[in-house]
Design brief:
Strands 2-10-9-6-5-3-4 form a seven-stranded mixed beta sheet, sandwiched between helices. Strands 8-7-12 form a three-stranded antiparallel beta sheet, with no helix packed on it. The two termini are 29 Å apart. The protein is α/β, with parallel strands linked by helices. 35% of the residues lie in helices and 15% in strands. The structure holds ligand T4K. Ligand T4K binds next to helix 4. The site of ligand T4K has 24 residues, from helix 4.
Length: 372
């Protein structure tokens, strides 16, 4: 279902319109359209079951749970994070009046390099905010060991990691809190939406207060909350999408298999393989272009693909640390982040989604292999 002339990096998973209309009629009939309605509560339960997590709290997007997680854990001072992500990760730290401290990434996974975290810890450090970039699991064990040693909190930006499991366990259980994005471009979407995963009922209660202005009952406000409540329409949409997300992940997997088969052995093109014991969600398919070996620069290939209607994306170029907002920070210096720069300068995320036709996949592959 790519539109007529272009093949986009992703395409939203849409519920069946008739089924959605039936749920809309129920919502219209009930006249309860937001504030912990029945579809909202049903979606929270259904997601706990699907994601194999004990507690979840729905949000209106994937940025507000990041902001709220930092608030809930009362994070101050410095937060160690990765520059190789979408800018919302670092913005959430800045909006909390904390200082982001960038640490280089491990080129094997694209995630923060645990070996480099300790050197970035100072007396002001209070948390680590890693990202499971492209849904690739971070080394959560090592990160937790470091956090425990220094008494730091860990908040995972798991925006890309819907349904990702390691040895049958949800990756969302790692750290103190994990956040998800249900934006239209994600594997599972509620148009706009997001969530936070937590370990206990007490934290769930606190988060639910914070996403509702801090209200704990009709007349009591227990904290400086925000409004980030998911409404009934998006919750109903999410319930329908949840029924088809496994099929969408399978379809993405099938595309990934074809890309890997066709591109393995193309000089100068590399990509991530599946990790042992991991249930991946194939949310992105990044390739890395080595100009020297491939004979063409990443940008030349990117624009050449574009001319043919193949709209890959250079996620995540430029690095967050290169944006004017952040590049003045000492940790943003390119000398501190060589691997992150290398990967950001070579990446193209290929189109991958449930609605790609075989001819689309073939054209994407042809664009890359035909230069040889
Ligand atoms: N943390 C991480 C690690 C994240 O990646 C993100 C968001 C967040 C936090 C914050 O979560 P949210 O607050 O957004 O829930 C997109 C998304 O807007 C953003 O959600 C996402 N990450 C980021 C990686 O990508 P753009 O500007 O690249 O999206 P856009 O509009 O160019 O769409 C990409 C392609 O998707 C289009 O070419 C076609 C297709 N598309 C898109 C939309 C919106 C459709 O077919 N239909 C649509 O409705 O940012």
């Amino acid at each position: 279902m790519s539109n007529s002339n272009t093949i986009t990096v992703t395409s939203p998973l849409l519920p069946d319109l008739e089924e959605f209309n039936q749920l809309l009629e129920m919502i219209w009939g009930s006249k309860w359209i937001t504030n912990n309605g029945s579809f909202h509560n049903r979606l929270e339960s259904a997601l706990c079951e699907y994601l194999k997590v004990p507690y979840i709290s729905l949000f209106t997007n994937g940025t507000l749970p990041l902001l709220t997680a930092l608030q809930a854990l009362r994070i101050t001072g410095e937060v160690i994070t990765t520059p190789y992500s979408f800018v919302a990760t670092t913005h959430s730290i800045w909006w909390n009046n904390c200082k982001p401290v960038f640490v280089d990434i491990d080129p094997v996974t694209g995630n923060i390099d645990p070996d480099k975290i300790e050197a970035a810890i100072t007396p002001k450090t209070s948390a680590i905010m890693p990202v499971h970039v492209y849904g690739q699991p971070c080394d959560t064990k090592r990160i937790q060991e470091i956090a425990d040693k220094y008494g730091l909190k860990v908040i995972y930006d798991a925006a890309h990691a819907f349904g990702v499991e390691v040895d049958g366990e949800s990756i969302l259980k790692a750290g103190d809190l994990s956040t998800l994005s249900f934006h239209a471009t994600k594997v599972f979407n509620t148009i706009e939406g997001g969530a936070m995963v937590m370990h206990d009922a007490e934290m769930k209660k606190r988060i639910d207060y914070l996403k509702n202005f801090g209200f704990a009952g009709e007349t009591e406000v227990v904290g400086p909350g925000i409004n980030s409540k998911m409404d009934e329409v998006r919750s109903a949409y999410g319930l329908l999408n949840l029924q088809q997300v496994d099929a969408a992940i399978d379809a993405r997997h099938h595309v990934a298999i074809q890309y890997r088969e066709a591109l393995r052995g193309v000089p100068g093109i590399t990509f991530f393989e599946d990790m042992p014991g991991v249930r991946h969600n194939y949310s992105y398919f990044p390739i890395f272009v080595s100009e020297k070996e491939y004979g063409m620069s990443r940008d030349d290939l990117y624009f050449k693909m574009k001319e043919k209607g193949v709209l890959g994306r250079r996620y995540f170029y430029p690095l967050i640390s290169s944006f004017s907002t952040y590049r003045g920070l000492p940790s943003a210096s390119p000398a501190n982040l060589p691997q992150a720069h290398k990967i950001a300068d070579s990446v193209i995320c290929l189109p991958i989604h449930h609605g790609l036709f075989q001819k689309d996949v073939d054209l994407v592959i042809k664009c890359i292999t035909n230069n040889h």
